Amino acid sequence: MSEVGGWQQLLAPATEQALVRELGIVVIAAAVVVLLARRVRIPGIVAYLFTGLLLGPATGVLSAGDGGRAGHDTIHVIAEVGIALLLFLVGLELSIAKIKDVGRVAVVAGLGQVVFTALGGFGIGLLLGFDAMTSLFIATALTFSSTVVVVKLLDQKKELFALYGRIAVGIFLVQDMVVIVVLTVLTGLGDPDQLTAASLSASLGKAFLGMLGLLGVMLLASRYVLPRPFTWIARSSEAVLVWSLCWCFLAVVAAHQLGLSPEIGAFVAGMSLAQLKVSHDLARRVHPLMSFFVAVFFVALGAQMELSGALTHYKAAIVLSLFVLIGNPFIFMLILVRMGYSERTSFLTSVTVAQISEFSFVFAALGMSAELIDPGILSLIAVVGVVTIGVSSYMIIYNHGLYEHVRRLKLLTLFRAGTHQDEEPPPARRDHVIVVGMNSLGRRVLQQLHAAGERTLAVDTDPAKLEGLPGETLQGSIDHQSVVEESGLARAKLAVSALRIEDSNNLLAYRAAQLGVPTAIHAFERGVGELLVELGAAWVMDSRMAGLERLRRVLGSTESVSPPASNRGEGAP
Predict the structure, then answer these.
(1) Are β-strands 519-522 and 494-497 bridged in parallel, bridged antiparallel, or unpaired?
(2) Count of C-beta atoms within a 10 Å radius of residue 377
(3) Which strands sit side by side in the sheet containing 456-460, from one edge to the other?
(4) How does pLDDT run across 504-535, given as a tens digit for each residue?
(5) Domains, in order of start, for the chain
(6) Model-wide pTM > 0.85
């Protein structure tokens, strides 16, 4: 295979007009659907899939232009570019440091589930009448769970760093590494018409050497080359986004030159950046792209489905979907309970794996392009994906209520799990003082607050300015909602800003006032103090010394920093 996956479609006769048209339709439809989905409480991913079905197979809107062919090719282009960038963002979430405390269970459960699901899926495939090669592809497609779906939903639920969330992400990291091996094997198969023992050995050897070489270079770069430039560029959100995408496409080009799939390059690039110290802030800044490409990918996926081929295998689709929705959680429950986790943690973790992965579609597309399976099997896997991703999205969103319901029915007693409380991460930040902007004023405020016994959190976009400070630190811009949430502003005792950025100060004052958290903000120019007071600032620091003195008096005179009405805006110029 000189080319892999659907990326050869980039050379197809899709016109620029068709690309703009189809992408515009996808984005507009996704924007409308996500608003409607929120009103009727439908998970966005489910809505995107059904939107694709409506725009594609049902109405033909996404394949009507230029006789249909250009539109069809354009959807392939959109889907393939989308999946590559989506897998880059998935890799960016897989920092080994995040899951080091659940490494053992991730390896055991991840590999154990891969083995049992693969064996079960292969057996079911044979029982359904498929040949051995087709059954092998079906089993492999069923084996892996969707990192994109689970990470997005757990992030929405604010439970990504709960114990079960960390275990799930660790399991996905193990699974994704296995996927890379599987994709490498498939890439190395070559032309099936010219497949011999010698050519197979040579092509597999070349593919694995290429994959190991790419992975090694990327990880070495993340250790010795990337930390300094990315630490420096992290001060600019625009520049860090461009640099990240540049690194992604460099890896994609390198993968192509090595005869690997672009998806492998994109995923490895993301995983290499995830190991950097600035990865958390990097992921936060790149994160909005995930929402966009989730929409693009799942709408395009639904649009590419061939319902006629899927209807041919509808019985198989039902059986395989039930196997994924019930069998995968059952396997995980057995493994996690045997490893000593409680019934609740085991159930919540198991529910997260009840769907197939975005890698499954890549894997099936590669198999079809290599003429190892027919297009009907690709449609079958796509249907299983739509069903399992849709149902499991509801299972994850309502996992706590689902657990209580299942527990009352005593359906979990057969696992003989313990009801003890597993160790959870430390409680969220609470009753702390947030100091934004580590300039000379901010550092001095922080040091005096810390010396007075206050629990402090320093926030700045420059990681160099956070080094050596007392208390906790958080890199990021307070303008971003994700930073506001991670800083625990809603539970803070006080928020202080030493920034000389009027818009950021105004936004912080307004957000804190909405949450009922008092603020002390630096009015670095005449005329800005009155607006800060109008926006809800409790105290305005009109000079460095006056501000420090006033802050020291306030914190020293009362346990609660909520100011009396007469003090509101004291010191405003």
Answers:
(1) parallel
(2) 24
(3) 472-475, 456-460, 433-436, 494-497, 519-522, 539-541
(4) 889 999 999 999 999 999 887 777 778 888 88
(5) 7-182+288-415 (1.20.1530.20), 433-567 (3.40.50.720)
(6) no
